[in-house]
Each structure stands twice: as C-alpha cells, then as structure tokens.
Automatic annotation (TrEMBL):
Belongs to the PMEI family. The keyword Transmembrane helix does not apply. GO terms for molecular function: pectinesterase inhibitor activity. This is Pectinesterase inhibitor domain-containing protein. Residues 1-32 form the signal peptide. InterPro entries: Invertase/methylesterase_inhib (IPR035513), PCW_Enzyme_Inhibitor (IPR052421), Pectinesterase_inhib_dom (IPR006501), PMEI_plant (IPR034086). It comes from Arachis hypogaea (Peanut).
C-alpha cells in the first residue's frame, strides 16, 4: 500500500507532482487557457518522438489543449496505464509457475488494486483537481506514485541506482518491465512541462506582487 516518501526514497514518479502543481498555479493566475506547445516541450527531452506521440494523443489534438485540460488528461492517462497493468498482472498470476514471479505479480496487484492502492487514488484526485484543492491532489498523487514505486522496486537489489529495472536475481520474462519502463519514460516528460509552465506563470504575475522564487524551483 502507499507509503509516503522520505528524502532518500523519491523516485522519478514524484515529478508528476510538479506537473499538477504547475497546472494549479496557472489556473490561479488565469492562465488555465494557455495552449500547450508540443515542439517546445518535447525538444527539451531525450525522447522527442515518445513525448510528441504522448502529448499529441490528447483528444482534439495538443494544438487545442490548454493547461487545465492537460492536467485532467494526464491523470486519465495514469488511470489507463494502471488498468492495463492490472489486467496484465491478473493474466500473469493465472499463468505463473515461477514462485518468484508469482510473488512479484501478487504484490504489485495488491499495490494497484487494494483499498488504498494506486487506482483508488484516481477519482479523489480528479475531484480535488476540479475543486482546485492542491493539497488534496498532492496527497492522493503522492500515494499513487508510492504504490507504483513499491511494485517496481519489489525484490530488487537495494544497491541498484536504476529503480525501473529488474535485477539479474530475477529476470522477469513478462511484459511487466516494459509497462513500468513506459511509465518511467512518461514521467521524464513531466519536469519539462512543469519547468516551462512555472516560468511563464511567474512572468504573468504583476511585479508589485512579491514572490519567493526559490520556492518555485523544480526538482
């Protein structure tokens, strides 16, 4: 189940928090209608094609997507990815003969579908986002991210510096590593969107309104 992070355990998924944070900052400064510029965002990543495909998959096209709609869409992408992974896990559990594999799949399934699992965070997150309650959004998103991370790191060598890969101790032959790597790539796009969003948000604030810019640094 979800575990809150400490400073030494933050995984790349926590960067999703910065995306929602940027969306809410935009909305608070009347910039929710800012149009997403896919090329400017994706050219700053190391996975330009993947990034473009993701952002251009927004219904209606990214050229017409504002910040607010992208925020809700991003959460729905997470829902879809989680559901697909749950379906995969159920299939893997039914067919697994390796005890290590079955243990991993059952653990991940619990992380995603438990009463406090990742999927249970989606609806409250969307509701909180609609209500512009950032504190509640971050709470639910943090728990969702933690559940994903627990699944990805289960049974791994704790000395590994790459949390999204399985160790040689257990080479998972299933598509699960590919699914988690896909989410890892998705999360690498988030800081770029967030950085651009926060910079433009700050520029939109009247100069007479003092702001502590150090508190807007994106990890």
């Amino acid at each position: 189940m979800a575990r809150h992070f400490n400073g030494n355990n933050v995984r790349p998924y926590s960067l999703i928090l910065t995306l929602v944070f940027a969306f809410l900052l935009f909305d608070a400064t009347s910039n929710a209608q800012k149009i997403v510029k896919v090329e400017e965002i994706c050219n700053q990543t190391k996975i330009v094609a993947y990034c473009s495909n993701l952002l251009n998959s927004i219904p209606g096209g990214a050229a017409r997507a504002d910040v607010d709609s992208l925020a809700h869409y991003t959460i729905e992408v997470l829902r879809s990815k989680l559901k697909n992974t749950v379906n995969l896990l159920n299939s893997l559990i039914a067919k697994a003969t390796d005890p290590k594999a079955k243990e991993l799949y059952n653990f991940c399934l619990k992380e995603f579908t438990g009463q406090d699992g990742a999927l249970a965070e989606i609806d409250p997150m969307q509701k909180s986002l609609k209500a512009k309650d950032y504190n509640d959004v971050s709470f639910h998103l943090n728990d969702l991210v933690a559940d994903n991370d627990e699944c990805m790191s289960y049974g791994q060598d704790q000395s590994s510096t790459s949390s999204h890969h399985f160790t040689t101790d257990f080479k998972d032959p299933s598509p699960l590593p590919q699914f988690t790597d896909d989410i890892f790539k998705f999360s690498s796009i988030v800081p770029v969107i967030s950085r651009d969003s926060v910079v433009e948000m700050v520029m939109a604030i009247p100069r007479e309104e003092e702001i502590d810019r150090d508190r807007l640094v994106i990890p």
